[in-house]
Amino acid sequence: MKRVILLSTVLFLMSGGLTAQSLTVLSGKVTDKASGQPLAGVLVTIRPAGENKVVKFTQTSTEGMFELSIKALPASHVLHFSMMGYAPLIFPLEAGRKFYDAAMTEKATPLKEVLVKAPSIHQRGDTVTYIVSNFADVQDRSLADVLKKMPGIEVEKSGAIKYNGVSINKFYIEGKDMLGGLYGIATNNIHQKDVGSVEVMENHQPIKALEDLSFSQNPAINIRLKEDAKARWVGTAKAGAGFSPFLWHAEVALMRFKKKSQTLNTFKSNNTGVDLVSETSLFTIDDILTPFGKSYRLRDYLSVKPDYLREIDSDRSRFNKTHQFNTNNLWSLGKHYDLMAQITYLNNRLTSDNETRTSHFLEDSTIVTEAIEHATEKQHRLSGQLTLTANTSGYYFKNRLLTDLRWDDTDMGVAGTFPNRQTATIPHRQFSNDLEIIKRHGKRAYTVNSYNLYQTKPQHLSVVRTNGTQHQHLEASAFYTNTNTALSFYVRPLTLSMKLGIVGVIRSLTGELTGVSDTLGQMKNDVSMRYMNLYVSPEVEFRQNGFEAKCDMPASFVPYRYTDNLTDRKHNREKFFLSPRLYMRYHFTSRLSASLSGRYAQSALPEQFFYEGLILNNYRHLTRGWIDYTSGNSRTVHFGIHYRQPLKAFFASADVARSWSYNPYLSNRYFHGAYLLNTFVRKDYRSDTWMLDGSVSKGIAPINGIVSVRTSFVVFNGARSQQGKELPYTTKDWQITPKITSRFATWCNVAYELSFSHYRLRMKNSAAESSYSNLWQSFSCHVTPGKRWRLQLVGEHYYNEITRDVSKHLFLADATLTCSLPKGWELNLLVKNIFDRETYAYTVYNELSAISKSYVIRPRNVLFSVFFRF
To answer: Cα–chain-centroid distance for residue 50?
Structure first.
């Protein structure tokens, strides 16, 4: 009987094997031709050629893969690919061919006189994909112009990008991090027509070796280029000239993105007010649970520079002559190895004319000063970095060498209450190296990190007054190192880590002040500070069933060594710091998540204030240091909730934070004739803050646009000391910004944005109370009257309360006429400030001071330019 069963089994398996051998398996992958991304849900059928009869069918998986099994390859049959919103593809079946990869092209599908297009937003897992062409209008040039129209994505005035209220931690181009945080270079210079899609990868862990060991709260953005923009030189060029006064504007952007190399180079020059400095701003994300970072910076003891507008677009008030060159390059040295190099040079000359009226509120009086300033600032900056990166699932290596050299000079003439002329030389030199190595062994990871930084700031200030001249010489330098090692291992569902490290600082400050009466204090400084921070930081991460948590408890022991070389006095102190932190997040659904975090931190000593002599910061402000080893503390609780429904273009987030702080000293301001002397007084000081922030963004199909609202509310209870007397106060600051964009016709699109803010200051020991409101609104309309002609009109309205009984309205308008020519050429006529307004005024509050400012803004400018995209 056993032999019969065994023989039957063998015969069954052989028949199954013969059957399998008689089947032909056709397989392949289906992708979007523009973005290269896999397409899920594509219908794949085998049909007789020229007929609609279906012999066999299947659909592609989430990875775009398909498989079809057929007993025999039929003659005169085809493989047919179809999906709503894409043009169908047909491949004749060929004998001996088993693999059929298909790249499908987007195409509007007519259906009973209704055009059905491919969705503007796709979602696959944690990746949300925006199709750029569905958000771009004809007037949009840069990628930044289109990002601002995508629901859920916010581009702040600084250029920083957030997704659903959370800052991004990486910006990739075709999966490569070429810019290392300087992503404004890409968003402002890559033409939107060269981009196929923008991918947002939620909760992105950029280090592959930590993917299942440590989770991330931040998203990342990846730019997918169109096929015709890859592996060839593309770019833009613009040149223009105008008048009132003579104007020029020239820029060239040249780039190529190959599989194994990327390069993006720009040269720009203008005197039209366009800001080029912000393009090279560095945007980095510091993890809230990082116990010790890499952000040590020497203080700028001198603060002499032109004052700039806060409320109005800075391009309207910037009188400049700017030249900037930037080159960014990345080379792939292997499958996972990249070498990145960046160099930026900036030459910038700025002038500013403004009038300021400052009111300092005391308990029983108000001190008012006035100043009329004309300033010129010259900036020369050269920076570069070289970064080598290896990023695999088992090994991570990154070494970044950075150099930042700056030569800034300012010349300022001041009339008013305290007339003078001040000139300042403020150079800055910085060199750093950042090395990080992570080795992964199964469920364990070993980390070694070493960050070393050297900075020096030799500075000089001269103030010429009618009654004499003051000179301030300063020489500040510091060496900073943070070297640590960590062991992490995963024991489902926990990740346990232990970090051991050392932070070392060697800082010196020398300076001499002349021309100021020595009755105010010591005129010289020659001090040094050394300390060695030995720290340990245990950390636990937990992930299971949608719940994530991080908890760490960094503890450190710090011996401080302070020396005053003028008096040969020395202070030796030891401090112990403990700063536990907890972060929790729960995913209720794939769309809704909430987070809760709390932190208690002992404040680090403000060791850069450890000096006893006077420093002249500018013609008005003097600072005297403060040596005190008593440390304060802070407590913070934060709750956030985030909801997103990408396929319906709906995003919403809300955050609430409550914080309390304690300091053993209070900042103090003395009024000594022409000077404000800033120092500290020994007094227990407590403050607290409420912060609420929220945003909603929704794509509206009937208007083919977006409606969004952002709002924030901050309440602060604190105090400062003036003339040695504590003055407690409360401030409330509320701001709301609704925005709507609409492309209601192919020939016209509009955008409207409003920002309203209200600020209130109340002094608790008196009946003194002040408040002001600001309103800004902007309306833009873009009309295409013909195939080649475009007209854009922009109007802005500003309402500002200058004082309690004085307010001011300001209306500004711009117009741009564009003529499109064949082969990527454009002619532009731009008129800015059509009404030729001359000044702008507003009031801001800074602690117990109200500062009313009036600025000269750029007059009517007319600019003719030629634009070319290749």
So the answer is: 54
> How far is 806 from 797, CA to CA, in rounded Å?
17
Residue 588 identity: F
Omega of the bond prior to 493 within 30 degrees of 0, cis? yes
**With the C-alpha atoms ordered 465, 467, 468, 471, is the resulting torsion angle positive or negative?**
negative
Q: How many CB atoms lie within 10 A of CB 738?
A: 16
Most confident range (mean pLDDT) of 40-44, 229-233, 352-356, 471-475 is 471-475
- 609: tokens are 């204030």
Q: What is the 3-state secondary structure (H, E, C) of 502-544?
A: EEEEEEEEEEEEECCCHHHCCCEEEEEEEEEEEEEEEEEEEEE
For 557, other C-beta atoms within 10 Å of its C-beta total: 13
CA dihedral angle for residue 232, residue 238, residue 239, residue 242, rounded to 10 degrees: 180
Spatial distance between the Cα atoms of 865 and 378, rounded to a whole number of angstroms: 27
CA 820 to the chain's CA centroid: 33
Q: Which two tokens stand for residue 548?
A: 């994530």
**Where would I find the beta strands (DSSP E) of 701-838?**
705-722, 725-745, 748-763, 769-783, 789-801, 807-820, 825-832
3-state secondary structure of 228: helix
Residue 536, beta-bridge partner list:
500, 555
- Give whole-number Cα distances, 107 to 32, 63, 65, 382, in Å: 11, 21, 21, 47
pLDDT digits (tens, 9 = 90+) for 278-295: 888 888 765 433 446 677
* Nearest C-alpha neighbor of 852 from the set 316, 371, 306, 350: 371
Q: What are phi and psi of 605, to 5 degrees?
A: -65, 140
Q: How far apart are CA 325 and CA 267, in angstroms?
A: 5
Helix, strand or coil for residue 870? coil
Name the token pair of 820: 């499109």
Tokens of 726: 């504590």
Read off the pTM.
Answer: 0.81
In whole angstroms, what is the distance from residue 83 CA to residue 104 CA? 9
Looking at residue 619, what DSSP letter applies? S
Question: Both tokens of residue 261?
Answer: 């190399």
CA dihedral 192, 196, 202, 208 (to 10 degrees): -110
Closest C-alpha to 309, from 323, 294, 319: 319
Strand residues in 139-203 grouped as ranges (E): 153-155, 161-163, 166-167, 170-173, 195-201
DSSP state of 168: -
Go through 662-686 and write b for each residue having 16 or more CB atoms within 10 A of its CB, e for each that does not: ebbbbbbbbeeebbbbebbeeeebe
Beta bridge partners of 668: 679, 721
Classify 417 as helix, strand or coil.
coil
- Cα angle, residue 580 at apex, residues 579 and 581 outer, rounded to 5°: 120
> In which band, very low, low, confident or very high, does the pLDDT at 618 lie, cut at 50, 70 and 90?
very high
Residue 100 φ then ψ, to 5°: -135, 100
- 329 three-state secondary structure: strand
Q: At a CB cut-off of 8 Å and minimum separation 6, what does 127 contact?
A: 199, 200, 201, 202
Q: To which H or E segment does residue 143 belong? A: helix 143-147
Pairing state of beta strands 319-332 and 675-700? unpaired
Residue 760 Cα distances to 392, 706, 769, 794, angstroms:
53, 32, 8, 31
Residue entry with tokens 């289109």? 146
> Across 673-747, where does the E strand assignment appear?
675-700, 705-722, 725-745
Q: And the tokens for 258? A: 């190959």
**Torsion angles phi and psi, residue 293, rounded to 5:** -105, -155
For 437-479, the pLDDT digits (tens) are 999 998 899 999 999 999 999 999 999 999 899 999 999 999 9
Taking the C-alpha atoms of residue 18 and residue 210, their distance in angstroms, rounded to an integer, is: 46
**Residue 767, SS3 per DSSP:** coil
User: Residue 259's CB: how many other CB atoms inside 10 A?
Assistant: 10
Tokens 């979602």, residue located: 123
Helix (H, G, I), strand (E, B) or coil at 8: helix
